[in-house]
């Protein structure tokens, strides 16, 4: 499996051609659910890869269609902000690329600005290159989370960061239960979604 910018190409800007097939299956059957009540979606049993439950899920958010985000974290920055955001994104991308082994990168351990993570999938759509799982999080759940978020972007040509809601509920393929995740974009342009017991999904 090879991305349009390989692990060794760290000096230049990656070419996000939005054609890499790896990200395509993620949103084929994805469902994004923005909870609208405090008692909706919280499972009674633990998620095998996310110890604990999502019982702390806040309420009050109206249900949102699959094509729009209720609360957008990265909406349309100004020119100066865009330059700063692009520089932060490239710095993070280059840092991760330098850590990857030659050949198959999936399963590689990386450090995302102090957060240990595992590379789960690479691609070039949605202006992102890496889907990663933090501690206590499986790659299956990380990919499911990325797939749910991708349903919010109009197309793979759009930057996913402009469509990140404050909270999403992701269904586990293992337990068929919903787990609440809180999402934000940090100062390094890393999309971080956290929930359960210290579970974290990172997307760059």
TrEMBL record:
Biased composition range(s): Polar residues: 81-99
Biased composition (Low complexity): 51-70
Region named Disordered: 1-99
Identification of the protein by name: Uncharacterized protein
């Amino acid at each position: 499996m090879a991305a349009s910018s390989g692990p060794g190409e760290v000096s230049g800007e990656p070419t996000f051609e939005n054609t890499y097939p790896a990200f395509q299956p993620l949103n084929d059957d994805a469902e994004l659910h923005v909870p609208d009540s405090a008692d909706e979606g919280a499972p009674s049993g633990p998620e095998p890869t996310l110890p604990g439950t999502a019982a702390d899920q806040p309420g009050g958010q109206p249900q949102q269609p699959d094509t729009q985000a209720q609360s957008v974290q990265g909406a349309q920055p100004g020119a100066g902000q865009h330059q700063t955001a692009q520089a932060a994104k490239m710095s993070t991308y280059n840092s991760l690329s330098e850590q990857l082994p030659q050949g198959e990168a999936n399963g590689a351990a990386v450090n995302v600005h102090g957060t240990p993570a595992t590379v789960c999938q690479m691609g070039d759509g949605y202006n992102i290159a890496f889907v990663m799982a933090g501690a206590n999080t499986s790659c299956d759940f990380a990919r499911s989370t990325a797939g749910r978020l991708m349903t919010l972007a109009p197309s793979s040509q759009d930057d996913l960061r402009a469509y990140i809601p404050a909270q999403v509920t992701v269904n586990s393929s293992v337990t068929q239960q919903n787990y609440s995740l809180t999402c934000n974009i940090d100062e390094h342009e890393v999309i971080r979604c956290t929930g359960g017991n210290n579970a974290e999904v990172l997307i760059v």
